[in-house]
Structures are given as structure tokens and as C-alpha cells.
Write a structure and sequence with these properties.
122 residues; alpha+beta; 2,3-Dihydroxybiphenyl 1,2-Dioxygenase, domain 1; five-stranded mixed sheet; four-stranded mixed sheet; 9 strands
């Protein structure tokens, strides 16, 4: 990642933790730590994606998680919908960005636009 970590406000900790645990698992991203109401997800023990409960969730933001291959994008999308996310763009090539941009978009329980993207042909 080019960012050390990112954090966002959510409304329901348990609902968000269940959603992100399910949809990020296909990308190899898991819950690493919980501290004072915040959940930190990442790889290899380094939390990079954080969320915590606030009185009001932030306005919808967009976060794109890297996928190693297109199958991971497909699995992310399926897991996200199963975990209660809403479709915001089925898996597919988005040539508007570049010929190998393969992404899927879902809305999380707070309406944030969450994406998994692969930049390879496979």
C-alpha cells in the first residue's frame, strides 16, 4: 500500500466487523487487532484498514483493496453480498481506467463504496 493506514467512522461495530471479516478474507486481509472500539485489518500482522464507532458515520467514502488476481475480486464480491453488502458494480473489466482494470464494487453497511481491484489479466 502507498498509505500506512486509513481509518473511518462506522455506526455498528459488530455488523461492520462481520462484513469486513467476510469480504476481505478472499483478499488475504484479516482482523489483526481491536483497540478501544477500533478494529484494525491487514496482512502479516500489520493493521492498515481501521474503523470505529462514532455518533455519525462519515459521508460515504471510496476504498479500493488490492487483489492478486481476478478470482479474488470475484470472491470478494460474492462474500460481500453474502455478508450484507449491496451491489455497486459487479466484477468486470473497466477499460475506462485501463485495459486490465478488473474491479468489483459494493456498498458496506454504512454506504461506503468498497472495491476490490486487480490490475492483471489473470
Amino acid at each position: 500500500m502507498i498509505i500506512d493506514h486509513i481509518g473511518m467512522a462506522i455506526r455498528d461495530h459488530k455488523k461492520s466487523k462481520n462484513f469486513y471479516s467476510a469480504c476481505l478474507a478472499p483478499l488475504g486481509i484479516e482482523l489483526v487487532i481491536e483497540v478501544e472500539g477500533w478494529a484494525g485489518f491487514g496482512k502479516a500482522g500489520k493493521p492498515e484498514f481501521w474503523f470505529g464507532v462514532h455518533d455519525q458515520a462519515q459521508n460515504p467514502i471510496h476504498i479500493a483493496f488490492s487483489a492478486d488476481n481476478r478470482a479474488q475480486v470475484d470472491a470478494f464480491y460474492k462474500a460481500a453480498l453474502t455478508a450484507g453488502g449491496s451491489d455497486n458494480g459487479a466484477p468486470g473489466v473497466r477499460e475506462i481506467y485501463h485495459p486490465n482494470y478488473y474491479g468489483a464494487f459494493v456498498l458496506d453497511p454504512d454506504g461506503h463504496n468498497i472495491e476490490a481491484v486487480c490490475h492483471h489479466k489473470v
